[in-house]
Write a structure and sequence with these properties.
The chain is α/β, with parallel strands linked by helices and 339 residues long. The protein has one domain: Aldolase class I (TIM Barrel). It has 12 helices and 8 strands. An 8-stranded mixed β-sheet has the order 6-5-4-3-2-1-7-8. α8 links the parallel β5 and β6. The protein is globular.
Length: 339
């Protein structure tokens, strides 16, 4: 029996699919998933967004009220200052730039010597009141990881909304003018691809070549890297799978393509996820499912329960069936494929 057949046999045998990720790890000799020293702090500042994308695992949108308050942001920075192992601060949302504390998090994280990442949907830079945002990001040398799920207008607008592609191209040109994405520039501009439907991403390297060729030839746009992400079977994308009758086949796809070689590189091993309300999680996907961080505190841990993010190594990571999304095929993480 192959490794994939072993993984599939764990939960197949009926019409109801309940894949057991922990057991799959055990069957494939991967052991229990535990933390290494945390090097990345991912801050989800809330679910407010100027878009409402069909695939969004956050279920973000213009009317979401979940927003990180000032006192939570300030506490995050206090704990960050006491956490020498954290080298990267990854700010996400929603559209993180719409949070009133975004500039504070960027400035203070940079002042502490951390590399700052903004997970940007691009179109937010065209929102009223955000006219200064691109220059602000460039001034603080913030790495931009921008969503662009295809290099054609039809596919992007189908997934993210009418007119989003045209606006995204406008913003990418603006960022190029500021120096983002230009070869050898310190201003890093990376793009994110995720499939339109219930399929795994293609090979990251080849797709990056296609993106660069198409965007350069048709729009004069440059960028550094392309990251491919697997659509996670949770929240808004899970609703799509259920409504289209594809949930069972998609979970089968993920489990049948379980790749043990991705396990040692999973982002949750070295990442701490902070929610808009200050709760702590092992990853952003667990946060959206309200799966608590796997530390033995007896209650959901919050930003006020720890003096430092360092020292979490060895704690067990909370997992679920959605974890097959990060370990299928070449793997998936906030930094793209793993294998």
């Amino acid at each position: 029996m192959t490794l994939q057949e072993t993984a599939f046999s764990i939960f197949s045998g009926g019409s109801s699919f309940t894949p057991d990720f922990a057991r799959t790890l055990e069957k494939n000799g991967c052991g229990t998933l535990v933390r290494e020293e945390a090097t990345t702090l991912q801050i989800n500042v809330g679910k407010l967004c100027n878009q409402a994308c069909h695939h969004c695992h956050v279920e973000a949108g213009p009317k979401r009220p979940e927003i990180m308050r000032r006192e939570v942001a300030e506490r995050v920075l206090e704990v960050l200052a006491a956490s020498p192992s954290i080298t990267n601060v990854d700010i996400t949302g929603g559209a993180p730039e719409l949070n009133a504390n975004f500039a504070l998090l960027v400035r203070e994280s940079g002042r502490l010597g951390r590399h700052v990442i903004d997970r940007c949907n691009l179109t937010v830079l065209l929102e009223p009141g955000q006219e200064h945002l691109a220059e602000f990001l460039a001034q603080h040398e913030v790495e931009i990881i921008a969503s662009l799920p295809c290099y054609t207008a039809k596919n992007v607008d189908q997934q993210r909304g009418q007119g989003v592609f045209e606006k995204s191209i406008r913003v990418l040109r603006l960022l190029n003018q500021l120096g983002y994405g230009v070869p050898d520039s310190r201003l890093q501009l990376n793009l994110i691809y995720n499939p339109l439907g219930a399929s795994l991403p293609p090979a990251q390297g080849k797709l990056e070549e296609d993106y660069k060729k198409h965007l350069q030839e048709n729009f004069g746009i440059q960028f550094h890297r392309l990251f491919t992400l697997t659509n996670m079977p949770i929240k808004r994308f899970a609703d799509y799978l259920a409504q289209s009758g594809k949930h069972e086949s998609y979970m089968s796809l993920l489990v049948n393509h379980f790749n043990p070689g991705t396990v040692t590189k999973l982002m949750c091993r070295a990442l701490v996820s902070v929610g808009w309300d200050g709760k702590l999680y092992d990853c952003d996907f667990n946060q959206m499912l309200d799966i608590e961080m796997g530390v033995q505190t007896g209650q959901p841990p919050t930003i006020w329960d720890f003096p430092s993010f360092s020292g979490l190594a060895g704690n067990r990571i909370a997992t679920g069936s959605h974890c097959f999304g990060c370990t299928a095929g070449a793997g998936s993480s906030c930094g793209g494929s793993l294998a």
